[in-house]
Design a protein that fits this description.
mainly alpha
Length: 143
């Protein structure tokens, strides 16, 4: 499971930081959006539905494995807080790296919100899977 999570993290880094350059941006370049839902609404209003769905669902789907696999690796208490906290830190790190070190990408609060939502959804899927597995084991053990 650890190898799968490591492979997922490498894929996540590749997808989000592919055009990577070590040149800090100028403040006036406008590579950061701190107003929530601006990019989502722009995609919805001015782009074909495919682009809006790709942008929105792509950011959500990108972090579902994070919320699903990480709790399997972290077996201690406060699993929910650790999973969501690390998802927040990971998404924030990606956005900051995109701002400071990429030329073709921009840091966007919408990406951050959608990524964290994806991790929470992945964690919810993990909880449902765990409940389902426990019921199957309970039924097969007692019946």
């Amino acid at each position: 499971m650890l190898n799968l999570f490591f492979f997922y993290l490498l894929t996540l880094i590749y997808i989000t930081l592919k055009p990577f350059h070590f040149s800090p941006p100028n403040i006036t370049e406008g590579k950061m959006n701190l107003t929530p839902y601006v990019q989502i609404l722009y995609q919805y209003k001015y782009k074909p539905p495919f682009f809006w769905m790709l942008y929105t669902l792509g950011n959500i789907i990108l972090f579902i494995p994070f919320g699903f696999i990480l709790p399997m690796l972290y077996k201690k208490r406060f699993r929910t807080c650790v999973t969501i906290g690390l998802a927040v830190l990971c998404s924030l790190s990606i956005e900051l790296i995109q701002y400071f070190f990429t030329m073709d990408r921009a840091a966007d609060i919408d990406d951050f919100i959608l990524n964290v939502f994806g991790a929470i959804f992945g964690y919810f899927l993990y909880l449902m899977m765990r409940l389902f597995v426990r019921r199957i084991v309970y039924k097969s053990f007692f019946f």
